[in-house]
Design goal:
five-stranded antiparallel beta sheet; alpha/beta; Rossmann fold; binds S-adenosylmethionine; 2 domains; 381 residues
């Protein structure tokens, strides 16, 4: 049976509404799937409405060839599927959806998110897509220079040497990967689950004259759980910059990294986190700000400094640094509310995603519950 798949057909957007039409396939069954979304009542009122229309091949399904299902989603991202469409064989439908049919797995949704957001991110941030070193930002360095300063800090912490080999997990459009290779003299593989990102990264890498030292590969959505392409004890460093937050199974990723690093080598990372702050102390109080971020920016759940430390230790590492990069202050990074990078005024294609993302993230930053953490961990000899 051919694998399930979803093909985009058309996307339509207005300032308040968007509609995406997709064709889904699983085995010899096909659907046309319209996904409508709207935001109303501001951040807390985020709701999505799905309308499903699916068509099976003639004769496949008893009772006719066409059926409708309408379902309002009560909660954001985490419960996006399985939906409960109106179907004669509901168990079968649920199985199909759960296997990665119409809505796909969480990982597939993240991949699709970057099809939409990737070009806008590139336009707004250039090749560096992660927060920078706070001191550098405070000193007035550009977002790109501050991002490089943080990457340099991580390379020094990892003690990566010329001639070494490293993996940058979740390499986006490649700026940080290429930069780390250039300052360390090590060889890098940058890994993503989105081929558009990898292709942009390859082009950038070639422009920088670094193609002999850096490769960009696109992995399957769930390959991060094993990193089976890399032999045991083979790498001198693994890095991640704001990518692990997208993984629903972070613990498996950290175990896989432990396996592929050489004894004595380091995992270094920077990631989006949540925390208790000010008047927002309980899970529910924090979630009111973080859930919209998770839904809009395709993040299955934010960890904390402590939850990352625990997962990394449980994988076998000795954690050397697990710190909040914005202790006691709101985390605005290089995107202060005055919109210095132009997110609010972005009017390129699919701008709703960017405006929604900025609005929910700004709200979480202003509430203080969003932050960024830094991690350095060593695999024991
Ligand atoms: C915000 S971008 C980070 C970009 C880059 N590290 C930077 O800072 O410029 C997130 C990255 O995580 C990757 N990613 C998310 N989920 C993934 C998965 N399941 N497997 C591999 N890569 C994944 C995306 O493809 C993307 O490259």
């Amino acid at each position: 049976m051919p694998a399930a798949g979803v093909t985009p057909i058309k996307s339509v957007r207005s300032p308040r509404w968007s509609a995406r039409i997709r064709r889904g396939r699983s085995g010899d069954e096909q659907w046309v799937f319209a996904y409508l979304s709207t935001s109303f009542a501001g951040i807390e009122g985020f709701r999505r409405t799905f309308i499903l229309l699916w068509l099976t091949r003639a004769g496949r399904r008893p009772g006719g060839d066409t059926a409708w299902g309408i379902r309002r989603q009560a909660r954001p991202f985490g419960r996006m599927w399985p939906l409960e469409p109106v179907w004669h064989d509901r168990a079968r439908c649920r199985e199909t959806l759960g296997r990665g049919g119409l809505m796909g797995t969480v990982e597939a949704q993240v991949r699709t998110y970057y099809d939409t957001a990737g070009p806008a991110y590139s336009q707004l941030m250039g090749p560096f897509w992660h927060h920078g070193d706070l001191e550098s930002e405070t000193a007035g360095l550009s977002p790109a220079e501050a991002a490089k300063a943080l990457a340099l800090k991580q390379i020094k912490a990892a003690d990566l040497q010329p001639g070494g080999t490293a993996l940058d997990f979740g390499s986006g459009v490649g700026g940080t990967t290429v930069y780390m290779a250039s300052i360390s003299g090590a060889s890098f593989v940058g890994l993503s689950n989105n081929e558009w990102l990898s292709e942009q990264a390859r082009q950038y890498c070639a422009e920088q004259g670094m193609s002999s030292q850096v490769s960009f590969l696109t992995a399957g959505d769930e390959d991060y759980k094993t990193l089976v392409a890399w032999p045991t004890d083979s790498l001198d460093m693994v890095s991640f910059f704001e990518s692990v937050c997208h993984l629903p199974d972070k613990a498996s990723f950290f175990r896989a990294v432990f396996r592929i690093l050489k004894p004595g080598a380091r995992l270094v990372g920077v990631d989006w986190l949540q925390r208790a702050f000010g008047e927002y102390q309980t899970d529910e109080q924090i979630a009111q700000w973080m859930r919209p971020v998770e839904e809009v920016i395709s993040i299955p759940g934010h960890g904390t400094v402590d939850s990352y430390r625990e997962m990394i230790e449980a994988a076998g590492f000795v954690v050397e640094i697990a710190e909040d990069l914005y202790p006691g202050v709101e985390c605005w990074g290089s995107t202060p509310p005055d919109d210095g990078q132009g997110w609010g005024s972005y009017d390129g294609e699919l701008s709703t995603v960017i405006h929604d993302g900025k609005r929910v993230l700004d709200a979480a930053r202003a509430a203080g519950v969003f932050t960024v953490g830094r991690f350095v961990a060593r695999k024991p000899e």
